[in-house]
Amino acid sequence: MGLTDDFDEEDRPQLDPSTLAALQEFYTERDEREKQFEDLKSKAEDAFDGSKPLSMELFTESWQDSQFWYKDETATVLAEQLLEGVTEDSKIAVVSAPSNDRERYPIRPKLMLLEFDERFGVFKEDFSFYDYKQPFKLDPSMKGSFDRIICDPPFLNEDCQSKAALTVRWLAKTWEAPLKLIQCTGERMESLAHKLYGKAGMRTTTFLPEHSKGLSNEFRCYANFECDAWKFQPEA
């Protein structure tokens, strides 16, 4: 007698119909996004010219890679502050913050997205693969060439934050004005952020970044300048 001879169909684990429907909807949406992305990637490899805006909905978040996209309002505010006073000679580096994507910059100077997720390679010359574990493994031409930088290190630990700071310092044209520097990261990283970027004038601001799906960790925006969107928090 086989092991399954007495196993009735009704003995098999069954999902609740509503749960099954939700699961099916999830897989359908995932498959559709993957198809959209593959189509986009194919076009990019052929002749992607950036003429059509890209939605972050095409790039599903990976919690394993600590990917949490900003709300549209947050991403727009951050982009506007980096664009304020921009000139044709300005260069913006977006480090590990892909939801602050290039579509936020209607008047766009040279912009480079440094990101581990190679799906963003659809941006072609505006994309550079970046692994914070190798902070200087980048095109040498980028060294000391950016005057506006935003960074959102993927992990809330000293190793990741410190190595990301090494990259930011390497990218920066200068470590003082007119450098515009923004970092969005957890509140518990505050003292480390001040230590790593203190010489650049970075302080905690009043602006609170928000994520599209929410986060349990309190997030803060740190910057070396004040603007219409935020002021410096009073120092303790």
Automatic annotation (TrEMBL):
One of its GO terms (molecular function) is nucleic acid binding. Its EC number is 2.1.1.-. It is found in: Cytoplasm. Residues 1-20 are annotated as: Disordered. GO terms for cellular component: cytoplasm. Residues 1-11 have a biased composition (Acidic residues). Pfam families: N6-adenineMlase. Keywords: Cytoplasm, Methyltransferase, Transferase. GO terms for biological process: methylation. S-adenosyl-L-methionine-dependent protein-lysine N-methyltransferase that trimethylates elongation factor 1-alpha at 'Lys-79'. PANTHER family: EEF1A LYSINE METHYLTRANSFERASE 1. Belongs to the class I-like SAM-binding methyltransferase superfamily. EFM5 family. This is Protein-lysine N-methyltransferase EFM5. It comes from Aureobasidium pullulans.
